[in-house]
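does this look right to u?? cytidine-5'-monophosphate version
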Amino acid sequence: MERRRVLVAVSGGIAAYKVPELIRCLVRAGHTVRCVVTDAASHFVSPLVLQALCGSPVRSQLFDASEESEIDHVALADWADIVVLAPATANTLARLANGLADDLVSTTLLATRAPLLAAPAMNVNMWRHPATRENVGRLRDRGVRFIGPESGALACGWEGEGRMSEPETIAAEIELCLGPRSLTSTRVVVTAGGTREPIDSVRALTNRSSGKMGFAIAAEAARRGAETVLVAGPSALSTPQSVRRVDVETALEMREAVLAEMPTASVLVMAAAVADFRPSKPATTKIRKEDLGDSAPVIELVRNPDILAEICAQPRDGRIVVGFAAEDRDVLETARRKLARKGCDLLVANDVSRTDGGFDSDRNAVIFVRPGGEAEELPLLAKAEVAARLWDLIEKLRGSSA
Ligand code: C5P
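got this back:
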C-alpha cells in the first residue's frame, strides 16, 4: 500500500478514546500520521498517547510561538493527503459548515484542500436535530465524506444512531477516499469557469459558469494521481491540492493555454463555458455615457474559435477529449448533435433549466453521452461525486482503447 499523509483532527467527544486505535491502524497500513486536537478533545484522550503513536508532536493551539515555529497551521493543512475528523462532534460540524475558524482544528479544516472524511459521534437527538441535518447536508454538498455514525448504545445512556464507527472501519474508508492512484503518470488538462470578453476597460461579456464543476474534476484527477493542469477563467475558487493552475480571462487566452498544454496531455476535459462571441473591437478605455449623448453603443460581436472542435480535429494519438454541454431544452438530443459536430469522445450534458443543480450550485445532474448516442443519466449528485463518476468512465474508455 502506498504511504500517504493522514491528518487526524480530533474534536471533543467521548469517542475520542477510539482515536489511538485509529492511528495504530493507519500507521500499520504504512501511512504517516499527524494529529491536531481541540481543547475539549484533550479532556477525552491524552495528547501524549496520540503523540507517541503517530511519532510527531500533537498540536492544539493556534497561537503558540514554539508550535508555529515548527509548522504553521496552513502548512499542516497543505501537508495532508487526507484529513479525517474523528470524532466529528455536532459543534465542530456546525462550525465547519459555517466557515468558522477560531481554533487550530477548525482553521486547519477550513484551510485544507485535501479530501475530508468525517466520522460523527454524538447523542442521537443531536444527530437528528434539524440543525445538524442541515449542516451535514451542506458539508456533503461541498464534497465532505461521512462514515457513520452507527446505531447502538450511546455513552450518554440513549440508544440509537450516534456511535462513531470503529477504527478499522474508518481506516478502511480512508483507503477508499484516498482512492486508487489510477491516474499516476497521466497528464490531464481541465478547463473551468467562464471566459470574460472585454467590451471596454471596465465592462465585459461573460456567462454564469461558477467553475465549480471544472474545479471538482481537476481535484479528482489530482487525487487519483494525475499531473493536472487547470486552465481557469476568472474565479475566486481556491486551487485544488496538487493542481497547477493557469489563469486566463478570454476565450483566445484559454485557447492559447490549452494548445500549449495539449502536446503532452493524455486527457482534456473542456468543462469551461467558453464565450462563443467576443466584441470585435474592445475599447481600450471606458466608454463614457457623456460621450454618447442619449444613444447606446452598438457592440459588434465576432465568433470565438471553438477550442474543443479544433482539438478534436487534430490527430488524437490515443488522447481522450471530453466536452460539456449546458442546455436548457431538448438536452439529450442537443447534446447528441453537439457531440457529433465537435467529434469528442464523451459529452457531459447538463440541464441548466433545473433549479436544484447546475449554475453556482454544489450539485449537478448530468448525462454522459457517447459517440453513437449511447447515454447514461446520473441522478442529482454533489459535483465532487459527478467528477468521480466522470473519471471512472474516462478510465474505462482509456482502458478499452489501450
Ligand atoms: O458549443 P458549446 O459552447 O455549447 O459547446 C460546449 C463545449 O465546447 C464545452 O466543452 C466548451 O468548453 C467547448 N467550447 C470551446 N470553445 C468555444 C465554445 C465552447 O471549446 N468557443
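The chain has two domains: 5-178, 187-401. idk if thats expected tbh
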